[in-house]
Amino acid sequence: MVQDTYDALNKLALTSYDTSNATLIATVGMNNKGIYMINALFEELLLKNKNQIVIKKKELVSLNMLIALASASEHTEYIISNASNRALISNKQHSNLISIFQILLLFLL
């Protein structure tokens, strides 16, 4: 039994992320349709290249990133999640963030 479920999820996310060596792609915005479309494009591009991914969609935005991180395995290469600004700011230890432009450049080159 844990006292603070958010803290327990955060610790689990950190442990999973540390062992996975994955790159976190966090999308943030006010337009949910746009965010879901961007995440779907990332998913399609990464799966087309046979990358091992974890993707979280349409759950609680404040917890999405932590759930996605906690779901990663040592074989996961990319973690895709929509996230709230609060989640990104409060989880600076998940520092392997990659920008949308970096990932698009990766596939265009």
Explained architecture:
The protein has 109 residues and is an alpha/beta fold. It has one domain (5-108). The chain contains five helices and three strands. It has a three-stranded parallel beta sheet with strand order 1-3-2, sandwiched between helices. Strand 2, helix 3 and strand 3 form a beta-alpha-beta unit. It starts with a helix and ends with a helix.
List the topology elements:
Layout: H1 5-20, E1 23-27, H2 32-48, E2 53-56, H3 61-70, E3 78-82, H4 85-90, H5 100-108
Parallel strand pairs: 1-3, 2-3
Helix pairs in contact: 1-3
Brief description of this entry?
This protein is an alpha/beta fold and 109 residues long.
Q: State the low-pLDDT regions, or none.
A: 94-105
Classify the helix fraction into a percent range.
40-55%
Instruction: Give the SSE string.
Output: HEHEHEHH
Number of helices: 5
Name the structural class: alpha/beta
Question: What separation lies between the terminal Cα atoms?
Answer: 49 Å
Q: Work out the count of structural domains.
A: 1
- The side-by-side strand order for the widest beta sheet comes to 1-3-2
- Number of DSSP-assigned strands: 3
Radius of gyration: 13 Å
User: How would the global form be characterised?
Assistant: flat
Largest sheet: 3 strands, parallel
Beta-strand share of residues = 5-15%
Give the rounded overall mean pLDDT: 73
